[in-house]
Protein backbone atom coordinates (compact mmCIF):
# COMPACT_ATOMS: atom_id res chain seq x y z
CA UNK A 1 0.00 0.00 0.00
CA UNK A 2 1.27 3.44 -0.93
CA UNK A 3 0.50 6.52 1.15
CA UNK A 4 -0.01 9.37 -1.31
CA UNK A 5 0.15 13.01 -0.21
CA UNK A 6 -1.47 15.69 -2.36
CA UNK A 7 -1.36 19.48 -2.09
CA UNK A 8 -3.94 21.59 -3.91
CA UNK A 9 -5.91 24.82 -4.12
CA UNK A 10 -9.61 25.41 -4.63
CA UNK A 11 -12.16 28.13 -5.20
CA UNK A 12 -14.85 27.36 -2.63
CA UNK A 13 -17.57 29.47 -4.27
CA UNK A 14 -19.43 26.61 -5.95
CA UNK A 15 -18.94 23.92 -3.31
CA UNK A 16 -21.25 23.00 -0.44
CA UNK A 17 -18.22 22.91 1.84
CA UNK A 18 -15.21 20.62 1.93
CA UNK A 19 -16.45 17.41 3.55
CA UNK A 20 -18.11 14.68 1.49
CA UNK A 21 -21.93 14.89 1.60
CA UNK A 22 -24.49 12.71 -0.20
CA UNK A 23 -25.90 14.30 -3.37
CA UNK A 24 -23.94 17.54 -2.83
CA UNK A 25 -20.93 18.96 -4.62
CA UNK A 26 -18.00 19.15 -2.20
CA UNK A 27 -14.23 19.41 -2.57
CA UNK A 28 -13.57 16.03 -0.97
CA UNK A 29 -16.31 14.42 -3.03
CA UNK A 30 -14.91 15.71 -6.34
CA UNK A 31 -11.37 14.53 -5.57
CA UNK A 32 -12.49 11.09 -4.39
CA UNK A 33 -14.69 10.71 -7.47
CA UNK A 34 -11.71 11.39 -9.75
CA UNK A 35 -9.44 9.03 -7.83
CA UNK A 36 -12.04 6.28 -8.12
CA UNK A 37 -12.19 6.78 -11.90
CA UNK A 38 -8.40 6.57 -12.18
CA UNK A 39 -7.55 3.88 -9.62
CA UNK A 40 -10.78 1.84 -9.83
CA UNK A 41 -10.87 1.56 -6.04
CA UNK A 42 -12.73 3.44 -3.32
CA UNK A 43 -10.56 6.15 -1.80
CA UNK A 44 -11.08 7.69 1.63
CA UNK A 45 -9.34 11.06 1.69
CA UNK A 46 -7.79 12.29 4.95
CA UNK A 47 -7.26 16.06 5.05
CA UNK A 48 -5.58 18.69 7.21
CA UNK A 49 -8.94 20.26 7.98
CA UNK A 50 -12.38 21.08 6.64
CA UNK A 51 -13.54 24.43 5.31
CA UNK A 52 -17.05 25.87 5.39
CA UNK A 53 -19.20 26.47 2.35
CA UNK A 54 -17.80 29.38 0.33
CA UNK A 55 -14.34 29.27 1.95
CA UNK A 56 -11.32 28.92 -0.36
CA UNK A 57 -7.92 27.26 -0.02
CA UNK A 58 -4.54 28.44 -1.23
CA UNK A 59 -2.91 25.37 0.31
CA UNK A 60 -4.83 22.28 1.37
CA UNK A 61 -3.16 18.92 2.07
CA UNK A 62 -4.67 15.44 1.99
CA UNK A 63 -3.42 11.87 1.91
CA UNK A 64 -4.84 8.51 0.91
CA UNK A 65 -3.74 4.89 0.67
CA UNK A 66 -3.86 2.89 -2.55
CA UNK A 67 -2.88 -0.63 -3.56
CA UNK A 68 -2.63 0.36 -7.22
CA UNK A 69 0.93 0.51 -8.54
CA UNK A 70 0.82 3.55 -10.82
CA UNK A 71 3.77 5.90 -11.49
CA UNK A 72 3.35 9.14 -9.58
CA UNK A 73 3.83 11.33 -12.64
CA UNK A 74 1.04 9.49 -14.46
CA UNK A 75 -1.24 9.75 -11.43
CA UNK A 76 -0.52 13.49 -11.17
CA UNK A 77 -1.33 13.96 -14.86
CA UNK A 78 -4.52 11.88 -14.74
CA UNK A 79 -5.81 13.53 -11.57
CA UNK A 80 -5.02 17.03 -12.86
CA UNK A 81 -6.99 16.36 -16.04
CA UNK A 82 -9.94 14.87 -14.18
CA UNK A 83 -10.39 17.54 -11.52
CA UNK A 84 -12.84 20.40 -12.19
CA UNK A 85 -11.50 23.85 -12.98
CA UNK A 86 -12.10 25.12 -9.45
CA UNK A 87 -9.61 22.62 -7.96
CA UNK A 88 -5.91 22.88 -8.87
CA UNK A 89 -3.51 20.06 -8.00
CA UNK A 90 -0.15 21.52 -6.91
CA UNK A 91 1.86 18.49 -5.86
CA UNK A 92 1.56 14.71 -5.53
CA UNK A 93 4.14 12.54 -3.79
CA UNK A 94 4.54 9.31 -1.87
CA UNK A 95 4.67 9.97 1.87
CA UNK A 96 5.86 7.95 4.84
CA UNK A 97 3.44 5.25 5.95
CA UNK A 98 2.81 7.13 9.19
CA UNK A 99 2.09 10.48 7.51
CA UNK A 100 -1.39 11.77 8.36
CA UNK A 101 -2.56 15.02 6.75
CA UNK A 102 -4.43 16.06 9.90
CA UNK A 103 -2.42 14.66 12.82
CA UNK A 104 1.03 15.29 11.28
CA UNK A 105 0.29 18.98 10.74
CA UNK A 106 2.13 21.30 13.14
CA UNK A 107 0.36 24.56 12.33
CA UNK A 108 -2.43 25.84 10.13
CA UNK A 109 -2.87 29.40 8.94
CA UNK A 110 -5.77 31.28 7.40
CA UNK A 111 -5.96 34.54 5.48
CA UNK A 112 -9.03 36.78 5.60
CA UNK A 113 -9.32 39.42 2.88
CA UNK A 114 -11.37 42.57 3.49
CA UNK A 115 -12.18 45.40 1.10
CA UNK A 116 -14.10 48.66 1.43
CA UNK A 117 -14.30 49.10 -2.34
CA UNK A 118 -17.44 47.39 -3.61
CA UNK A 119 -16.88 45.30 -6.74
CA UNK A 120 -19.02 42.66 -8.48
CA UNK A 121 -15.81 40.93 -9.59
CA UNK A 122 -14.41 40.37 -6.10
CA UNK A 123 -17.58 39.64 -4.15
CA UNK A 124 -16.77 35.91 -3.96
CA UNK A 125 -13.16 36.43 -2.93
CA UNK A 126 -13.15 39.36 -0.49
CA UNK A 127 -15.49 40.45 2.28
CA UNK A 128 -16.91 43.90 1.70
CA UNK A 129 -17.31 46.31 4.62
CA UNK A 130 -18.99 49.69 4.18
CA UNK A 131 -16.54 51.69 6.27
CA UNK A 132 -12.75 51.74 6.17
CA UNK A 133 -11.12 49.90 9.07
CA UNK A 134 -8.02 51.21 10.81
CA UNK A 135 -5.56 48.32 10.73
CA UNK A 136 -3.77 49.19 13.99
CA UNK A 137 -7.00 49.53 15.94
CA UNK A 138 -8.31 46.27 14.52
CA UNK A 139 -5.07 44.47 15.37
CA UNK A 140 -5.37 45.60 19.00
CA UNK A 141 -8.78 43.93 19.13
CA UNK A 142 -7.48 40.72 17.55
CA UNK A 143 -4.30 40.39 19.62
CA UNK A 144 -6.44 39.41 22.63
CA UNK A 145 -6.74 36.01 20.93
CA UNK A 146 -2.98 35.40 21.06
CA UNK A 147 -1.86 32.43 23.15
CA UNK A 148 -3.63 29.34 24.47
CA UNK A 149 -7.34 29.70 25.29
CA UNK A 150 -10.59 27.82 25.64
CA UNK A 151 -12.40 28.71 22.40
CA UNK A 152 -15.71 27.08 23.31
CA UNK A 153 -17.55 30.34 22.57
CA UNK A 154 -15.85 30.66 19.18
CA UNK A 155 -17.00 27.42 17.59
CA UNK A 156 -20.02 25.80 16.05
CA UNK A 157 -21.00 22.40 17.40
CA UNK A 158 -18.83 19.62 16.01
CA UNK A 159 -18.77 16.23 17.71
CA UNK A 160 -15.49 15.32 16.00
CA UNK A 161 -13.53 17.89 18.03
CA UNK A 162 -14.46 17.77 21.72
CA UNK A 163 -11.46 19.67 23.14
CA UNK A 164 -11.95 23.45 22.72
CA UNK A 165 -8.38 24.40 23.75
CA UNK A 166 -6.42 25.94 20.88
CA UNK A 167 -3.25 28.05 20.71
CA UNK A 168 -2.93 31.07 18.44
CA UNK A 169 0.73 31.56 17.46
CA UNK A 170 0.58 34.70 15.35
CA UNK A 171 -1.80 37.35 14.02
CA UNK A 172 -0.85 39.82 11.30
CA UNK A 173 -2.90 42.63 9.79
CA UNK A 174 -1.54 43.93 6.50
CA UNK A 175 -2.86 46.94 4.62
CA UNK A 176 -3.50 46.44 0.90
CA UNK A 177 -5.11 48.63 -1.77
CA UNK A 178 -8.58 49.62 -0.51
CA UNK A 179 -8.57 46.90 2.11
CA UNK A 180 -6.55 44.68 4.40
CA UNK A 181 -5.51 41.05 4.76
CA UNK A 182 -5.50 39.27 8.12
CA UNK A 183 -3.30 36.22 8.74
CA UNK A 184 -3.89 33.94 11.72
CA UNK A 185 -1.73 30.90 12.55
CA UNK A 186 -2.53 28.28 15.20
CA UNK A 187 -1.91 24.67 16.10
CA UNK A 188 -5.46 23.90 14.90
CA UNK A 189 -8.89 25.50 14.58
CA UNK A 190 -12.39 24.50 15.63
CA UNK A 191 -15.41 24.49 13.35
CA UNK A 192 -15.99 28.05 12.05
CA UNK A 193 -13.59 29.40 14.71
CA UNK A 194 -11.91 31.95 12.44
CA UNK A 195 -15.25 33.28 11.19
CA UNK A 196 -16.61 33.71 14.74
CA UNK A 197 -13.37 35.31 15.96
CA UNK A 198 -13.44 37.85 13.14
CA UNK A 199 -17.20 38.34 13.26
CA UNK A 200 -16.95 39.19 16.95
CA UNK A 201 -13.98 41.50 16.31
CA UNK A 202 -16.06 43.39 13.72
CA UNK A 203 -18.83 43.81 16.28
CA UNK A 204 -16.34 45.25 18.79
CA UNK A 205 -14.67 47.53 16.24
CA UNK A 206 -17.96 49.01 15.02
CA UNK A 207 -19.13 49.38 18.66
CA UNK A 208 -22.11 47.07 18.29
CA UNK A 209 -21.11 45.16 21.43
CA UNK A 210 -19.12 46.12 24.51
CA UNK A 211 -15.37 46.60 24.05
CA UNK A 212 -14.47 43.70 26.37
CA UNK A 213 -16.78 41.16 24.71
CA UNK A 214 -13.89 38.99 23.47
CA UNK A 215 -12.27 38.84 26.92
CA UNK A 216 -15.60 37.80 28.43
CA UNK A 217 -16.11 35.05 25.84
CA UNK A 218 -12.62 33.66 26.48
CA UNK A 219 -12.84 33.86 30.28
CA UNK A 220 -16.38 32.47 30.55
CA UNK A 221 -16.45 29.44 28.22
CA UNK A 222 -19.46 27.92 30.02
CA UNK A 223 -21.62 30.99 29.43
CA UNK A 224 -23.45 31.29 26.12
CA UNK A 225 -22.88 34.39 24.01
CA UNK A 226 -24.36 35.33 20.61
CA UNK A 227 -22.18 34.08 17.76
CA UNK A 228 -21.37 36.49 14.93
CA UNK A 229 -19.92 34.79 11.85
CA UNK A 230 -17.88 36.78 9.35
CA UNK A 231 -18.80 36.09 5.73
CA UNK A 232 -17.03 33.01 4.31
CA UNK A 233 -16.11 34.47 0.91
CA UNK A 234 -13.07 36.41 2.17
CA UNK A 235 -11.58 33.43 4.01
CA UNK A 236 -8.75 31.26 2.68
CA UNK A 237 -7.01 28.25 4.17
CA UNK A 238 -3.56 29.71 3.60
CA UNK A 239 -0.88 27.21 4.62
CA UNK A 240 -0.36 23.88 6.40
CA UNK A 241 3.03 23.37 8.03
CA UNK A 242 4.61 19.96 8.64
CA UNK A 243 7.82 18.79 10.33
CA UNK A 244 9.79 18.67 7.09
CA UNK A 245 9.36 22.41 6.52
CATH class type of the largest domain: Alpha Beta
Q: What would you call the structural class?
A: alpha+beta
- The CATH architecture of the largest domain would be 2-Layer Sandwich
- The helix count comes to 5
Classify the beta-strand content into a percent band. Answer: 25-35%
Main pleated sheet: 10 strands, mixed
Shape: globular
Instruction: Estimate percent helicity.
Output: 10-25%
CATH fold-level label of the largest domain:
Alpha-Beta Plaits
Poorly predicted ranges: none
- Averaged pLDDT: 95
CATH superfamily of the largest domain: Pseudouridine synthase I, catalytic domain, C-terminal subdomain
Order of helices and strands: EHEEHEEEHEEEHHE
Q: N- to C-terminal separation?
A: 25 Å
Number of β-strand runs: 10
Radius of gyration: 19 Å
Tell me the count of domains. Answer: 2
Helix and strand topology:
Elements lengths: L1 E9 L16 H13 L6 E2 L8 E11 L5 H11 L4 E9 L11 E9 L11 E2 L6 H8 L4 E4 L14 E12 L2 E8 L6 H13 L7 H7 L15 E7 L4
Helix pairs in contact: 1-2, 3-4
How would you sum up this structure in a few lines?
This protein is α+β, with helices and mostly antiparallel strands.
Amino acid sequence: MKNIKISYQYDGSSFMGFQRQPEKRTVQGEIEKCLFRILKEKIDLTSSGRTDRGVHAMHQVSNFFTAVNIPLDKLFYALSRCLPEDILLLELEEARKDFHARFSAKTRSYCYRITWEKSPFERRYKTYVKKKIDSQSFFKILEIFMGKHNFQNFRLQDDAFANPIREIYSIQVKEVDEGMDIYIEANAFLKSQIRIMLGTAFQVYFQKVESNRIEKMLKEPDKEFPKYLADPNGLYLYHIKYDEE
